[in-house]
Amino acid sequence: MRQKLAYLVTEDWYFLSHRLPMARAAREAGFDVHVLTRVESGRESIEAEGFRLHSIDWRRAEMSPIRLVGALMQVRRQLRAIAPTVLHNIALKPAFVGTLAASATMPMALVNSINGMGSGYLAKGMAGALKRQGIGRGLALLLNRPRTITIVQNPEDWAGLAGLGVPESRLRSIPGSGVDTVRLVPVPEPSGPITVAYVGRMLADKGLRSLIAAQRLLVEQGKPVQLLLAGTPDPDNSTSIPRAELEAWAREPGVTCLGHVADIPMLWARSHIAVLPSRREGLPLSLLEASACGRPMVATDVPGCREVVRDGETGLLTPLDDAPSLAAAIARLASDATLRQRMGAAARRRAETEFSVAVIATKTAELYRDLAIGAIG
């Protein structure tokens, strides 16, 4: 009988966009793959992969204790019915709920992917401090469960969890779920004005207001740089940019709001430079995809971004929330085609050797196998 692997994730679209390569690798390794998530529009795509889909009635932003308890009971019932050998919880909320649901009466192994420490670690003031303290104490208890491994994507998150008391023997560093370096390949730069592209959710925590301020500075300096914003607001995130503000940005010189873009290779084919002025990341998929397409990058010098962008080698790092520095970095790359080509080629090499689906999927599948056979206690 095939061993069962279950993924617990908040949204079906996130599973498809960020965890599909990992699940495919598990399937090829012999696991019967189940996906527990809120089902919105991804049913057909998930089931077409041969995965078994189980609907959970929850939302990422839902914090009502009653709703959380309801979700916990739903997950517990699903896990009892599935009886997976390994449960992989994706992100903080599933890690809390999934670990609580997998009680001692269900002796499954657990994997928790902590994809950055979340918005709770960006909140400011007393409320933010209390939230961080609560998250930290809860994690310290849950991640010490026997037969539990937690995957982190950058050194800061590793250090943070170790500082909370999570033994390093229960931590693994695996950078994301990989980037498809076969589908995403280097393409020649487009002709015309230098174009910079941001890909991601329209969130203040992604540094978009600093990016717009940088674009205004470039316009004032007479530099003909075009800015593409690819993505949509996220109503479940407290820092989502209001649509009225996005519409105002779209009326500014050189700014184009594309909304959701499914054809990522085409987006990078029309762009010269990738930008991500985020406040914190786990490991940003948008920069990995830009790297695979051979594009140099400009990003903030924060956890997650600095793991993808090597300053001066594959791109340029700038201080957080510093629009003038961001504008200067963009202008430097915009004015130097040789530098763009050198950095883009270096980015592609790192994508192939460190971040490719083949590399990451192999590491993750090995972890699943070790947990399933009891090699990790």
Question: Uncertain spans, ≥5 residues at pLDDT below 50?
Answer: 118-122
Overall helicity = 40-55%
Figure out the total of helices.
Answer: 14
Mean pLDDT: 91
CATH hierarchy, class of the largest domain: Alpha Beta
- For the secondary structure, the number of strands is 13
Tell me the β content. 15-25%
- The strands making up the biggest β-sheet line up spatially as 3-2-1-4-5-6-7
CATH topology of the largest domain, by name, is Rossmann fold
Q: Could you outline the blueprint of secondary structure elements for this entry?
A:
Layout: E1 4-11, H1 12-28, E2 32-38, H2 43-48, E3 52-55, H3 65-82, E4 86-90, H4 92-101, E5 109-114, H5 125-142, E6 148-152, H6 155-163, E7 171-173, E8 195-199, H7 208-220, E9 226-230, H8 243-250, E10 255-259, H9 264-269, E11 273-276, H10 285-292, E12 297-300, H11 305-308, E13 315-318, H12 323-334, H13 337-354, H14 357-372
Parallel strand pairs: 1-2, 1-4, 2-3, 4-5, 5-6, 6-7, 8-9, 8-11, 9-10, 11-12, 12-13
Written account of the structure:
By secondary structure, this protein is α/β, with parallel strands linked by helices. It folds into two domains: 4-178 and 356-372, Rossmann fold (3-Layer(aba) Sandwich); 195-354, Glycogen Phosphorylase B (Rossmann fold, 3-Layer(aba) Sandwich), CATH 3.40.50. It has 14 helices and 13 strands. Strands 3-2-1-4-5-6-7 form a seven-stranded parallel β-sheet, sandwiched between helices. Strands 10-9-8-11-12-13 form a six-stranded parallel β-sheet, sandwiched between helices. Strand 5 (109-114), helix 5 and strand 6 form a beta-alpha-beta unit. The longest helix has 18 residues, at 65-82. It starts with a strand and ends in a 5-residue tail after the last helix.
